[in-house]
Design brief:
There is one protein chain. By secondary structure, the chain is an alpha/beta fold. The protein folds into four domains: 87 residues, Chorismate Mutase Domain, subunit A, CATH 1.20.59.10; 89 residues, Periplasmic binding protein-like II (D-Maltodextrin-Binding Protein, domain 2); 75 residues, 3-Layer(aba) Sandwich (D-Maltodextrin-Binding Protein, domain 2), CATH 3.40.190.10; 93 residues, ACT domain (Alpha-Beta Plaits, 2-Layer Sandwich). The protein contains twelve helices and 15 strands. The strands form three sheets. Strands 1, 2, 3, 4, 5 and 11 form a six-stranded mixed β-sheet that branches. A five-stranded mixed β-sheet has the order 8-7-9-6-10. A four-stranded antiparallel β-sheet has the order 13-14-12-15. Strand 3 and strand 4 form a beta hairpin. Helix 2 packs antiparallel against helix 3. The chain is globular. The termini are far apart. The model has no long low-confidence stretch (mean pLDDT 90).
């Protein structure tokens, strides 16, 4: 019976070996072309990361797949091919909120693949400073969560930074309750990032209402603490549990089963600005005087020129006069005629205007 199965599989395995050899040849051919591209980019000082080009390649691969592989599976394969080839042009360093095992690191891998140098930072402020100073090529920072809203510190830092938005990526957020032993014996507190604590409030109130809740810099830091202190539990994802050798007491404890966080990729040089792609977003920060009708007047150019607004977030200006900054996402690229006209008119109506950048919109099916 075993011999019969081996005989049946041999021809299929031989065919797979032939296909693998063809794949390897094609991958190396693509790699050589990538090296040539990198040589040309280096000669003219062009950036290695071109988000609109990468989005185009991934979208074409996903929509062109006619075989048994799903669009997501094809995208995952091509993302790693792009990552490896990009590294042949020049390895990129990306700053993220660390330590290792955070959802920020997960977002970085989802956007850039495995062939990138991650630089963990202790705080969001350090992520911005490191990239602004050129110690990292790019940064990836959390913008908003589907259940808890905007990440306020990121919004505050975007106000003054010279960094520009180059891309967006969202990741599903699954939280686990973790301890060193895998039980809650002797545990008297639970540590997590403030956003994670808020995203699990209902579950904690139901199952462990008496636990002290302690906010720390990141969920990965919480997992590290739990790995060293038997009296502490942590809320963190699967990657942090593996990295810090802590065990899962309860899995998927977030209150919203569809919980996701949207991240922004930020870059330092204006030469990294994205060219228009098939589907783009433009992000702005605006402010108007605190008087009747000011916000309506500010936004009227969008309706006049047919520009859709996908996000509108307010944040106190913190100058003691009850004024606000408004964080706005628009559909379309700032170089599109109707968007450009609307932005010009909108800017004239604003007391403060900042364009954070135009970038490829993440495909809706990945959200």
């Amino acid at each position: 019976m075993v011999e019969s199965i081996d005989a049946q599989l041999k021809s299929l395995r031989d065919a797979i070996d032939v296909v693998d050899a063809r794949l390897l040849s094609l991958l190396n051919e693509r790699a050589r072309l990538a090296i040539d591209v990198g040589r040309i980019k280096h000669a003219v000082g062009a950036p290695v990361f071109r988000p609109e080009r990468e989005a185009e390649v991934l979208q074409r691969a996903a929509t062109s797949s006619l075989g048994p592989l799903s669009a997501e599976q094809v995208t995952n394969v091509f993302r790693e091919v792009i990552s490896a080839c990009r590294a042949l042009e020049r390895p990129l360093t990306v700053a993220y909120l660390g330590p290792a095992g955070t959802f920020s690191e997960m977002a970085m891998r989802r956007q850039f693949g495995a062939s990138v140098n991650g630089l963990p930072c202790a705080t969001l402020d350090e992520v911005f400073r490191t990239t602004e100073a050129g110690r990292a090529d790019l940064a990836i920072v959390p913008l908003e969560n589907s259940s808890e809203g905007a990440v306020s510190r990121t919004l505050d830092l975007l106000l003054a930074t010279p960094l520009e938005m180059l891309a967006e990526v969202s990741v599903p957020i699954g939280h686990n309750l973790l301890t060193k032993s895998g039980s809650m014996d002797g545990v008297n507190r639970v540590c997590a990032h403030a956003q994670a604590l808020a995203q699990c409030t209902g579950w904690l109130n139901q199952h462990w209402p008496s636990l002290e809740r302690q906010s720390v810099a990141s969920n990965a830091e919480a997992a590290r603490v739990a790995g060293e202190d038997v009296t502490a539990a942590a809320i963190a994802g699967d990657a942090a549990a593996l990295h810090y050798n802590v065990r899962i007491v309860a899995a998927q404890i977030q209150d919203d089963t569809h919980n996701r966080t949207r991240f922004a990729v930020l870059g330092n040089r204006s030469s990294q600005r994205s060219s228009p792609s098939a589907r783009d977003k433009t992000s702005l920060i605006l402010s108007v005087p605190n008087k009747a009708g000011a916000v309506f007047h500010m936004l009227s150019p969008l309706a006049a020129h047919g520009v859709s607004m996908t996000r509108f977030e307010s944040r106190p200006a913190r100058i003691g006069t009850w004024e606000y900054y408004f964080y706005v996402d628009l559909e379309g690229h700032a170089e599109q005629a109707n968007v450009a006209t609307a932005i010009t008119e909108l800017q004239q109506a604003c007391a403060f205007f900042k364009c954070l950048g135009s970038y490829p919109a993440e495909p809706s099916e990945t959200r």
